Amino acid sequence: MEPVQTLRIAIQKSGRLTEKTITLLENIGIRFDGYKNRLLVKALNFDVELLLIRDDDIPEYVQDGICDLGVVGANVTLETQADITILKDLDFGHCRLSIASPVSRNINSAKELGGRRIATSYPVLTRKFFDSLGLDVHIIKISGAVEITPRLDVADAICDLVSTGSTLKTNGLRELETILQSQSQLIRTNKPLPQHKVDLIEKFLVRIEGQLLAEN
Ligand code: PRT
Ligand code: ZN
Asked: Domain ATP phosphoribosyltransferase catalytic: where (predicted)?
């Protein structure tokens, strides 16, 4: 089979990172002719294409070399434990992964949660954090609406992403501890790439660095 030569970049199909990612790529000079409701989009002016997928799948697609580059939150890359290289922090999609518990429960520290039930979409990172405290907890993996689980008595505390903190507040939860600071990153496959892709990635990196400097 002929090797694929077009530089393929995995980005989030539809979510918080999508628009900012497209804007960044356009700001460094890559032109696209519409990307909504499409899975694979070719650039008009470079030998580049975008694969639009769920953010959770991006690190593994890059790890496996299905895509050469990806734009995804550090929270997702670390949770999937993918073997990739981080090329650049992109300074958007900032958030933190935090432990929170109901205000009504009078828990003041994550250290008080040994033996308790913790609901999260980030079981790997949550387990690592409690292991580092030497605490055993029951981790309940939930894919969405984690913040409601203490009220339903499904969990005693949660580990979830926070940006403004208003979701926690609305749900009567108090942030106890941040276990990870996250932002979007440009990641690269560790699989060997042909020289023209290496050169193109280098060129884009220089432009991204210039763009980030200009924004700050
Ligand atoms: O469909 P797909 O799987 O691609 O999308 P998704 O629903 O998994 O992800 P999406 O689009 O919600 O988020 C994509 C990425 O944005 C995350 O992986 C983070 O890297 C980043 N990000 C930045 C956030 C937030 N800020 C954020 N606030 N992701 C989620 N949230 C949620 C959080 O889970 C909680 O429900 O927003 C709520 C808290 O927000 P505040 O402002 O009330 O604190
Ligand atoms: Zn997701």
From this structure: 54-209
Between strands 48-53 and 7-12, the pairing is parallel
In a domain, 154, yes or no: yes
136 and 33 housed in the same domain: no
Would the CB of 167 count as within 6 Å of ligand 1?
A: yes
Same domain, 102 and 69: no
27 lines ligand 1 (CB under 6 A): no
Q: Which pTM does this prediction carry?
A: 0.96
Based on the structure, what is the number of domains in the chain?
2
DSSP structural state of residue 16: T
User: Does residue 205 line the site of ligand 1, with CB under 6 A?
Assistant: no
Sign of the alpha-carbon dihedral angle for 6, 197, 82, 186: negative
Model confidence pLDDT, tens digit, residues 48-105: 999 999 999 999 999 999 999 999 999 999 999 999 999 999 999 999 999 999 999 9
Compute, in angstroms, the gap from residue 39 CA to the centroid of ligand 1.
Answer: 21
Ligand 1 within 6 A of CB of 53:
no
- The answer to the question of residue 1 being in a domain is no
Residue 98 tokens, joined: 């935090």
Q: Which atom of ligand 1 is nearest to the CA of 72?
A: 20
Among candidates 35, 63, 59, which has minimal Cα distance to 49? 35
CATH number at residue 45: 3.40.190.10
